[in-house]
Predict the 3D structure of the following.
Amino acid sequence: MTTRSSLTLTVNGTDHALELDHRTTLLDALREHLGLTGSKKGCDHGQCGACTVLLGGRRVNACLTLAVQVRGREVTTVEGLGTPEDLSPLQEAFLECDALQCGYCTSGQLVSGVAVQQEAADGWPSAVTEDLTAGLSGPVVLDDAEVRERMSGNLCRCGAYRGITAAVLA
Amino acid sequence: MKELRYEAPADVAAAVALLSRPGARAIAGGTNLVDLMKLGVETPDLLVDVDALDLAGVEDTADGGLRIGAGTRNSDLAADPRVRSRYPVLSRALLSAASGQLRNAASTGGNLLQRTRCSYFTDTSKACNKRVPGSGCPAVEGLSRGLAVLGTSEHCLATHPGDMSVALAALDAVVHAETPDGPVEIPLVDFHRLPGDAPQTDTVLPAGSVVTAVSLPPSRGVSTYRKARDRASYAFALVSVAAVLEVEDGVVRDVRIALGGVAHKPWRATLAEQALTGQPATAESFRAAADAELAQATPTAQNAFKVPLARRLVVGTLLELTGADL
Ligand SMILES: Cc1cc2nc3c(=O)[nH]c(=O)nc-3n(C[C@H](O)[C@H](O)[C@H](O)COP(=O)(O)OP(=O)(O)OC[C@H]3O[C@@H](n4cnc5c(N)ncnc54)[C@H](O)[C@@H]3O)c2cc1C
Ligand code: FES
Ligand code: FES
């Protein structure tokens, strides 16, 4: 019985050849096998968002994604957003808006925030978008209520939500 | 989790053949299956990756409806221009569910087949007739606040927890699947079962099948979805309502209402629909229709609040669709 597979994970533009047990989640592959510990394990059940990464440019919970299903697709983690010397605009905004306290949720918030900005630019509606057809011809304009709804998959135990919302809007 | 094999089948026939083996499970987004594997509730020894089948995409059908491939992601379906303009109840239901991350991973097929969130089902240290047939249902005397009030049995109070299927029930959607005996089409309202004395079986889909698509008939009337829950976002429904309404000269010509969070299946409120058809589109007839449906409720002490909640949600949703000032 073959319970492991050889596969290539493409993370932040770099290919990694791995041999993984099929039970390995993308989150464990990143943290335990590739040493990329920016993505955090909060709940391991899709309930907190600390593990959020981009898969083919779209945000997903790495804790519920099996690594074997991700072969050949581009993964972006918080390490791929910016570097300490060259922060991304959203990372700068998090600093300016005081969008964190302990920082445990922050990498997930950052990756999710980047995706929220992209989804709005693509005209995707949310549960609080009054007119579902508004974004059909252009971007959805984000405001406080839109960001709070769209970021609801990322919990922050320190309650830094005001700063996080402000940073995503900045 | 126990060790398991993984296969990416080349076509639907190969997937059905693999899924007919004991211990095999289909996996799409994995957001429900992987969760339940970590909890020891699901213990497959072979995963069949239905994402390898290229079942994603939304197409127009000849009759003016839509065909939604089973691999279509919830976020793509919610954002589809045709769904947003012609089937707003479906967009709204999808957007009310889970989180942005989960909707990107969750597939149409996986969403239909997601398991209950009953806390006894997800806790392997507890009895549960759905997980271990014959072991008992502790919810009947225990924690039932979130559980069913319609179509319950003494053996199970679990609900189908999803939002998408509730909208699909109100839209008269049809599920398309490839079974070991060939292709089948199953109306969404008949797809999920009531628990009866076999709560271990969620749906009528034969074992070994692959859901390939969901089709929608042409849109009619106006529609929307409302969901009441314990927090404003990222929570399952306590009660939800999907409604499709056609009013002409102040009279209800046609109405389709489905309730979520209240039963083992998306609950099509046929008694309410019958009571309302031909009646004036007023708060009074909406209330009478809701009462006609909810008279058959069998709540527990803990979830009795769902009955008046459902009543108010039905009335509020229909009033919203008539354009009444709320
Ligand atoms: C924290 C959290 C909150 C959530 N909140 C909500 C909510 O508010 N509302 C809501 O509706 N849902 C909610 N969900 C559930 C979510 O919508 C489902 O997990 C998701 O839709 C399942 O889709 P999937 O593709 O990931 O399925 P998978 O996990 O891959 O599969 C689920 C089941 O479907 C079977 N399956 C999948 N595809 C096929 C196919 N093509 N043919 C045959 N069988 C198939 C699998 O074998 C498995 O049994 C939530 C989930 C989480 C983790
Ligand atoms: S660790 Fe993945 S959502 Fe909490
Ligand atoms: S900053 Fe501590 S959990 Fe968010």
Observations:
- The interface with chain A takes residues 1, 3-6, 27, 29-31, 34-35, 37-38, 45, 47, 49, 51, 75, 78-79, 81, 84-85, 88, 91-92, 95-96, 98-102, 104-105, 232-234 of chain B (CB under 8 Å).
- The mean pLDDT of chain B is 97.
